[in-house]
Input
Amino acid sequence: MILLCSSIFFILKVGVTLCTVPGSLNSSSGAADGPRWMSQQFVLPNFLSFFGLRCRQMNQMFCLSGVYFGLDRVSDRLPRESDLRVIEMAVRPSYKLINWYPFLRQNPSDICCSFQKYIYQTQGQEKGVSPEEYLDLLFDFYAPEDKQVNWIQATYISKLCYNVITEIGFGPGQLKMSGEFYLNEQFVLPVEKGMGILKIPGNDIRGAITFRWFRKHIICESQPWICTIDDPSDWAEERRRPE
Output
């Protein structure tokens, strides 16, 4: 069950008593990648991680990180010379529609598309995924029931006695976790615009938050057009919409 409470800023002011250390601190969780593991991942604006800080500069609700696969290649497809050009042509007019902003860039003015092409190259092309396949997955904000939480990055804050989620991902495959967290403590999803904090039991992360909920309350708060589309076949047309 997800519980609503006061804003994170209020909790930071009043929650100054250190809580009892709740067992062993975890840095990772989850077994080896399965053959179907794929994750559409999001960075949540926060003060705890470099990506979170960069995201805060660009959006107050979320930033799309990219689509990530397991360790194994998805197919035997080899890279093609045109791959990165296809990605840039598709992403340049539409990256703002999905908050796919660069977290790292050498040139401050390069908001698109060096970072986006790098993510595709390392996380898609090298895994045997074509640009078209990667873009379909990147723009897939449809909410099937089997699109579950399968990636969490979190940091435990002793003054809050909470694990603060800094990144979250959805897709097929088991839940994988990274960061420094206590599994027997609650996880919180920092959101703004008056929603407060979402408190999630550590033993029921997948049951407590669904992609359908995340799309409605986080993604569509920033990009309302996404909630006007319910048919996955419409995404290809929408990503061609000019800025």
